[in-house]
Amino acid sequence: MGVSTSSPEKGISVVTMDFPPVNALPVQGWYDVADAILAAGRAPGVRCVVLCAADGCRGFSAGVDIKEMQREAASGAGGRSTLLGANRGCYEAFSAVYRCEVPVIAAVGGFCLGGGVGLVGNADAIVASDDATFGLPELDRGALGAATHLSRLVPQHLMRALFYTSRTATAAELRAHGSVWQVVPRPRLRAAALELAREIARKDGYLLRLAKAALNGIDPVDVHRSYRFEQGFTFEANLSGVADRVRDTFAQEDK
């Protein structure tokens, strides 16, 4: 369990998230994802990184581990270390995908929710299974954030409707909007992601790094500043007490 890195082929690194059953990442997990992706991108022989979930997880990611926050609240300590850690960890992990020196492919199977959208929205390409769904249930979880990244996957008005309703969009819908490269049956997901990674990895490694820096430089959205702006409202929701009330309701419904 945790985050691991493998090298199935020359020039390709695969970073795997394994937090069963739903890949809800604890605080340290977000930092581990960030470290693994940045380390893979710095490796001289790597030309493409694939980010995926372990086979034993039901989906790509359910986002932040809400139960970790609940355990801290139930302890009576009154601290906010888990909340602060999750916010900082998410920022670092999302940023790492964007700042990785080489292209990052997100291989998405099953659900991709909350922080999962943050990771995928900053990826360079997305390969998804035909049962993949994407969404931000943040308003139902006492949180905000990652609209920055959802807006990189769907048009502005659809992003807003999805955010307000906590509904999800399918991989087929995202492909229609041009944000998903390929939709394949779930058993074919890893192979399809590696096929795309293999095609990218045939390019010159130095030129790929220049290309990644150039594309980030012309990006119309400053993903770092935009997401940090969103996080400020997440903190306001927590300081006001409304986030705790909503999280408590979610925890009761989840039992």
Automatic annotation (TrEMBL):
Belongs to the enoyl-CoA hydratase/isomerase family. Signal peptide: none annotated. It comes from the Bacteria. The keyword Lipid metabolism applies. Gene3D superfamilies: 2-enoyl-CoA Hydratase, Chain A, domain 1. This is Enoyl-CoA hydratase family protein. Keywords: Lipid metabolism, Lyase. Pfam families: ECH_1. It comes from Streptomyces beihaiensis. PANTHER family: (7AS)-7A-METHYL-1,5-DIOXO-2,3,5,6,7,7A-HEXAHYDRO-1H-INDENE-CARBOXYL-COA HYDROLASE, ENOYL-COA HYDRATASE-RELATED.
